[in-house]
Design brief:
homodimer; 235 residues; alpha/beta; Rossmann fold; 19% strand
């Protein structure tokens, strides 16, 4: 049974890494002592070791140890045997590329489908959708495919941003970008605001956190859904 | 001899389509009566006809006619025979994909290298860099490659945005994104602010407009350059 938390962000404004969601993670990871961390999105180009250390510091507060996937000679085996998995944020193209070149897409899909508790933040959430075509990231590397883990029947847009009505910037708003996605693709997109997350228990998908999410369906006017909304029918 | 204008945007805040740059375009296109328009980036999903009509309305003010590349049975021939070429903005992934699937990359490179006056705005400027890896656009389609026309020895980041120090948004700033590009790529990136453009005459590349541009070189601190700066040595 799938047991997944997909968060918009690791860090809310004014907070420290993962602090806003640690009580939830204590419950989510209650049967795990050690969490396998996938550092491949490499935010800001820090080393995998440095990134893993940041994560380990946060999880120490709820008495979990953390090991980086990059330290295992056989990463497929590490994923298959993990008690719990966390994929951190950074650049979605870099992360996706690393998962493909290391042949980790299928092992990761299988582990999560078989019930290994999973946490994603930002890029780590993005890759659980059908494709990475609704990422906000810059395409700094060319992955073999935009197809993602497809653990959810829709796409996610993390760090969802409402239009800034005071802006003089002429680039596209986030809403415009997602509407353009729907000129070429039909799956729904969940715009997750900072501090929101999706909780997946088997086939039940629920919006969590204090904020509404914005839902974009093909050929429909975008709409807001409140916290605790069941999104299981969205596909 | 190359004769190119690469603009950050088609429309500055409070203005109409291309109006801020029309006097420059009158000189740039002085030997052309008709401009071949490449509408493939399709902003907002409008039809190629509708997009071409917007462009035709703007160019009528300087007595140019405009024809859309999509109306030609043989687009390669249309590019080769064009008096002048304009590629409009929209989504860079969509544009790049269309150029590849229609086998137009090489014809377009050759036409511009042979001296056909070229104008790009936004996505139409992006594709003149080495790759599209510094686009701001959402990757709504998967192109066969991120390699672009390579008419310039660097990459362009149009609609360059300075960090918003008041923002509570935790997504990456533009500067952070471009720094991440340099963890995986070495070419320089020119951050072109709204209302700025690059003028290319042969091998001479000059920053134009009223604003500074921000230059990102591999392993260097980013720096500002003033209007009229010669960027020919940047590679």
């Amino acid at each position: 049974m799938k047991n997944i938390i997909l968060a918009s962000t690791s860090t809310v404004h004014g907070g420290t890494y993962l602090d806003y969601i640690l009580p939830t993670l204590q419950e989510h990871f209650k049967h795990a002592n050690n969490i396998l961390f996938i550092p491949f999105a490499r935010p800001g180009g820090i080393t995998h070791d440095d990134y893993t250390n940041i994560v380990a510091t946060a999880f120490k507060k709820i008495n979990k140890t953390v090991t980086g996937l990059h330290t295992y000679p056989n990463p497929t085996e590490a994923i298959t045997q993990a008690e719990a998995i966390f994929t951190g944020g950074g650049n979605t193209f870099v992360l996706t590329n690393q998962l493909y070149v290391n042949n980790l897409i299928t092992p990761l899909q299988n582990a999560v489908k078989n019930g290994t508790p999973y946490l994603g933040t930002s890029a780590g959430s993005n890759i659980c959708g059908l494709t990475i075509k609704t990422t906000n990231d810059m395409p700094i590397v060319y992955p073999p495919s935009f197809n993602a883990l497809a653990l959810m029947p829709f796409n996610i847009n993390p760090h969802y941003l409402d239009p800034d009505t005071n802006s003089k910037h002429m680039g596209e708003t986030r809403e415009t970008r997602i509407k353009e996605f729907h000129f070429y693709n039909t799956p729904p997109v969940v715009g997750l605001r900072e501090g929101s997350w999706l909780e997946v228990k088997g086939n039940q998908i629920t919006l969590m956190g204090n904020l509404h999410a914005r839902i974009f369906e093909y050929n429909k006017t975008p709409y807001e859904v409140a916290p605790k909304t069941n999104l299981s029918q969205l596909k």
